[in-house]
């Protein structure tokens, strides 16, 4: 098939769930696989880079990136959001590296000036050269918003993101993340392969292990089940609760939820790497930023309904939510690190999946299909 997946390994990945296998160790440990993932996946697919509320006013901008591609997301004067390369078309300097509010962007190197939509406005001391080409600007990048999240796609021919999501909207729309705001954020450095984090994120089978005390009682592994679409590239792990949530009094379920929704927590992914949790009252966005095959940063953002945050000037709600999610993530870190070590062991191999790991199976189908495409 190719130099990192043998035909046997691919056949195992492609087998139906009840005969399904994990990816082979090399899919995690080899730098060449990540090089291929960049070309086949990250630079062609929709990647979430920010929340709309991070750009509340015209001129508000943010430096973001899709791995090695620095980008600017910026709110225009008409209220729309645009995305563009942050790399100056003169000699390659990043035009901005932070966030703020601006009337225009000025490259710090030779002060070429760009409007908020990326057009070149002026270039000092360039009057003795021939006219610059008309496409001399900050190259535009596709952008879409969904549920308050801003997605970009480096492929100008990519199909629209929202066309993939009608069935997902049925499942998660009522949780109303559009009307939530970031209540607090926490950063982690994760020196392991990005797929291990997503796989762990997308199964509740391990509640019987590292979360035996924290989660297994309320969200038993055996009750979890999966919705999703390999074709549309998303998966939802449903975790029905067996008892009223202990925090119900503090955090009432969102008003639009039906009985099932108000008694379950969801972990979801829009592939390749947009991961989030919906509880009946709040949400957590796991912002994954893969850097190399063996490293990524993770920022966990707690999201709460904006009404909940209005009177909360001290940020107490955010602190509380972050403490809860930090407790869970601390239990997950060893079961990311362990398999990362394990993937390097000479006697390790592909492993069989449980029916409770259906999301991993779905993710693997999507991944294998894209990675197998020849240039
Ligand atoms: S590199 Fe930007 S103006 Fe020269
Ligand atoms: Fe976990």
Q: Could you explain how this protein is built, in words?
A:
The chain is 23% helix and 28% strand. The protein is of the alpha+beta class and 375 residues long. It folds into 2 domains: 7-45 and 163-372, Alpha-Beta Complex (Naphthalene 1,2-dioxygenase Alpha Subunit, Chain A, domain 1); 47-157, Rieske [2Fe-2S] iron-sulphur domain (Rieske Iron-sulfur Protein). The strands form 3 sheets. The protein has a 7-stranded antiparallel sheet with strand order 1-10-9-4-3-2-5, with no helix packed on it. Strands 11-17-16-15-14-13-12 form a 7-stranded antiparallel sheet, with helices on both faces. A hairpin with a 3-residue loop joins β14 and β15. The longest helix has 27 residues, at 316-342. It is globular and about 70 Å long. The model has no long low-confidence stretch (mean pLDDT 95). Bound molecules: FE2/S2 (inorganic) cluster and fe (ii) ion.
Summarize this entry quickly:
By secondary structure, the protein is of the alpha+beta class. The protein contains eight helices and 17 strands. 23% of the residues lie in helices and 28% in strands.
Poorly predicted sequence stretches spanning 5 or more consecutive residues: none
Which structural class is indicated by helix and strand composition?
Answer: alpha+beta
Q: Could you say which overall geometry the principal axes of the C-alpha atoms support?
A: globular
Residues in β-strands, percent: 25-35%
Architecture (CATH level 2) name of the largest domain: Alpha-Beta Complex
The CATH fourth-level homologous superfamily of the largest domain:
Naphthalene 1,2-dioxygenase Alpha Subunit, Chain A, domain 1
Query: Could you say which small molecules are bound to this protein?
Result: FE2/S2 (inorganic) cluster, fe (ii) ion
CATH class of the largest domain: Alpha Beta
Task: Determine the fraction of residues in helical runs and give it as a percent range.
Answer: 10-25%
**Can you tell me the CATH topology of the largest domain?**
Naphthalene 1,2-dioxygenase Alpha Subunit, Chain A, domain 1
- What does the radius of gyration come to? 22 Å
Q: Please describe the biggest sheet, giving its number of strands, its sense, and whether it closes into a barrel.
A: 7 strands, antiparallel
Count up the helices.
8
In N-to-C order, the SSE pattern is HHHEEEEEEEEEEHEHEEEEEEHHH
Widest β-sheet, arrangement of strands: 1-10-9-4-3-2-5
Q: Compute the average pLDDT.
A: 95
